[in-house]
Every structure is written in C-alpha cells, then in structure tokens.
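Justification of resources, computational component.

The compute hours requested in this renewal are based largely on the per-chain cost of generating structure records like the one below. Each record pairs the submitted sequence with a full structure-token output. That output is archived, and it is also reused by downstream analysis tasks.
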Amino acid sequence: MKKPKNYGYVAVLSKALHPVFNALFYVAAFFIVLCFILSMILFFVNVDVETMLLPPFMHKIADEAGKITEYSVSFGNGIKIVTAATNVILDDIKAVLFAGLFVIVCTLLTLAPIFKFLAALLKNISSGERERLLDEKNPRYVSYMGLCIFLGSALVRFMMRFYNYYLAARFIKCEPQQIGLSLGLDLMDGVPGLLILFLGLVLAYVFRQINER
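The structure output for this chain reads:
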C-alpha cells in the first residue's frame, strides 16, 4: 500500500509566510497613504519646468550646450515619444505624476486586501489544529482573494489604458486633435480571479460537508 504523503512542510511554510504577508498588508497601506500625501504636496509645487522632478519613464534631452530641447516619454508596451521642450509645461508633468500615483494606489488597493486574506488563511493553516484547518472562513478567504483579483485586475487595466491615453493626449501634438479614449473590455483579465473565486466556493462546500459529519 502506497504511503500517503506528509504535507507537514505546508504548515511550516505557512507559519513563516503568515507574518510576511501580514507585514506586506501594512506596507501597502503605508504607501497608499504616502501616495495621497505626495499628491497633496504635488498640488502646491510651483517650479520651473526644467527643475521639476520627472517620473522614471520621462527624461530630458539636452543639446551640446546643455540646454533642454526635448523630453522623451515612455508609454510602456514598447512605445516612446519625443516631444519638443516648448510643448511641455509644468501642468503636463504634474498631471502625469498625478495619474501615475493614482495607478499605483489602484494597484495597492488590489494587493492590500489579498495580502490580508492570505495572511489570515496561512495563520489558520500554520496552527495545525483541526478546527482551524476546517474553519469555514478559510474557503471564504480564498473566495475573497479571487474577488479582489477579478475586480482589481479590471480596475488596474482601466486605469492603465486611461493613463496611456492621458500621456498621448498630453504629449502627442497633432492638428486636429485625433487622439481618443478606447477602453475596450478584456474578458480574459478576470478569468484568474473568477477561477479562484470558484475554487473558494468548492472548498466551502467540501468543508461544510466534512464539518457536518
């Protein structure tokens, strides 16, 4: 008769990772608050365009004399544009920074609850106690994580598309203006979240059957 596998290492890993994900939740919460503080500070910033702090994907291009003549802006997805410095004003850079901070906040708002639910799940698993292992909250945590991934992926995708449109509208100068927003809908983005949500429902059913025996 084949000897059943011992999955004791799962409890060990859960015990080690529980405080990690718990800490990540507070780190995410800290950076969410930090982004809001930076946004408020940025609102009152009033400096020359040439001395303004640029986001990581935006760079100055200077001539041989050191005068800034152009700005390069990376959209992601392999796209980069170069625009004349005379087309860029302080509000352009601030608007990009605001949009970037909002994208970061949306991403962290997706990750923070996932970290929290995962930490709670791992805490119950690491205990090794039957009551806590079969606690019906555990499959709920899995379902909540799936729901967060489903909603969060849609939110982040929406913000990234709006962000790219915003960059294009700000830095691509064409007459007449022919740049429009096309959000579209990617059903595949939500599939992983829905599968995890379904898995949580299946586990909830299994746990209920076991606990009722």
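The chain has one domain: 8-46+92-211. The two ends are 27 Å apart (CA to CA).
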